[in-house]
Amino acid sequence: MKQQKLNFYLSLYQAVGFSLASIVLTILFIREGGMAILVLFFMALLFLPFLLLSISELLKPLLGSQNLKLCIYLSLAFLVIPALALPIFFELGGFLIALFSLSFAGLVWLLKDWHHKLLAMNILGGLVLSSILLYLFWSIAHYMS
């Protein structure tokens, strides 16, 4: 499969998946009440880089490839900047997440071709979305039993 088609299908998976997961998680957090509503902010920080990148990939025929390159760098910034504050609140776990985010962003930054950068970000977004969907299905099955 060509790399452009793979990027397109991964972006389509992420755009639909993150949108549906956002809606389901928002309903669950609001229904839970209390402090669970504050998790919506963390969900938005996690979903924003991948959702921005997937929507810009899907709108590439309208926006052009130059705007897609800008969105790649913006999504890398949205991936790294919030992660830098995590060690303040979550000690070792936050430090490990920040270290992973920084190392991944550095590796993506070093890639030469922007198609490879897009593919690396799409693969990470697909893995994040797949783990979130797996958790949602598990929690719904656990709730139903």
3D structure, described in words:
With 145 residues, the protein is mainly alpha-helical. The chain has one domain. It has five helices and no strands. Helix 1 packs antiparallel against helix 2 (39-58). The termini are far apart. The model has no long low-confidence stretch (mean pLDDT 82).
What is the string of helix and strand elements?
HHHHH
Q: Runs with pLDDT <50, length 5+?
A: none
Question: Distance between termini?
Answer: 41 Å
Fraction of helical residues: over 70%
- Beta-strand portion reads under 5%
How big is the Rg?
Answer: 16 Å
General shape: globular
State the helix count: 5
Q: Quick one: how many beta strands?
A: 0
Mean pLDDT: 82
Counting structural domains, the number is: 1
Structural class from helices and strands?
A: mainly alpha
Q: What summary fits the major beta sheet?
A: none
Features:
single chain; mainly alpha; 145 residues; 5 helices
Write the layout of secondary structure elements.
Layout: H1 3-32, H2 39-58, H3 60-63, H4 65-110, H5 114-144
Short account of what is shown:
With 145 residues, this protein is an all-alpha fold. Helices cover 90% and strands 0% of the residues.
